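Handout, page 2. Input:
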Amino acid sequence: MLKFVAGDSGEWMAFTPTRRADLPSSARPTRLAILRPDNDLLCLLDADYTKERSYSQPCRDWPEVKPHLAVVLAPSGQQGDEAGPEQPERIWGLGIVRPAHETDRDRKVIVTRARRIRSLVPFSGLWCSAGERDDSLARSLPESGPVTVGADVVLANLRRIAPDVEREVQRLLPLLDDGEGWSDRELRWRDERDALLLFAKIAGLAPNDFAPVHSWEKTVARGGFLSGFTGTAVQPTLDDIRGRVAERFSGVGETVVQTFASGRGRQNYDFEATSVTGQRVVDGGESSLDAYYYHVGTQTLIVLRYLSPGPNGLLSCATRHSLDDFLDRVRRLPRPIRGSADDYGLLDDPLFLRVHDHVPFTAALHRTSSGAIYPYGQIAAADSTAAEAGLSGPSVDALTRHLVPTDFARLVRDGWFGARDVPIEVALGWVEATVDTVGVALVVADFSSRPRGNGSGIGTRAQGIA
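Output:
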């Protein structure tokens, strides 16, 4: 299936210590959080409980990023007609909350499925033990944010507090299941979305200038995240580059193409994204993702392979074998010409590995996901160390220095990272190896010729070629 749609539209490295992901556990207690939204957000939640709503709240310290059962409290002006100076604080309703990205001062959260409790339910009923007020439990409850102490007692009290509250808890608890929103396809959508946003930053889009991502529709998304964008059908110009990826891979499964270019005469960015999903994956097979950024003017290639560690923090044998298979295939392809000793490139190897924090897919998260990017050489060194220690695969804990996504984007944009002088046909040979080994490839071809970053790297190189 071949689908064409169209949409509208330096700093040096920063290394940070890697973090172990808080992985799922079947024995984990129910996750609870307390929210204190303002009246405007409560009105939106009350108007349509099926829609996702986002807002910033002061607590940044969430122990994990998975969904929490949200106890939504009513503001002081919403305590009821009989409210008085002695009126106890009450629970407005219940819902689901997912923490998103951190800001400088607070945390963005996504609230959904939040419905009003019609009866008057005092908040103080949550911190009783054996029928008596438990002051220590009351002090441990956060003003706003996750409940990290006494969550089981709080949940038990919540379920006993009123019949309609119990019904809401029964409705919402299944949505907290570890399997919710973690299908292979949805994780692949997450990775493809992450790569698209990361490469869009490299291509020149401002963080808030990517409107199509905000209007992404899950119902029309098939094999790839790109297929969730709607737009006017268009036939790309089939010149030397545009359309070449779709043309070459049109018979392998599902191929989706979308172009993104500056509007109103601005020439800030011009790139084409193509998602290629192999037939095995279209038929329901498991898969992973390799994402390709190719700058046409300088023939610069960057490849990101997306990996997830297992519950033990190790990269699995299957992951390692798949990577070895991929490398065996691309080693047979012509290698790019290495730069001179005084070239500006820090690394000429195009392959990097993107290791995510363990976060579910959500289209409401408009920024790139948290996690780390490692040069392939570091993974190879960790694999050798793991083999010597008798481990089944390299440990994420062994990867002590990595790039954060924002700085990786800057270094690629300024030309410090990437294999140069890679002909498009060689790059497509790498893409073919991806489809054969992991099943899905996202290819972003950047046609922008504008100067990059501080004038180094790609911009300087392009002027030299011209």
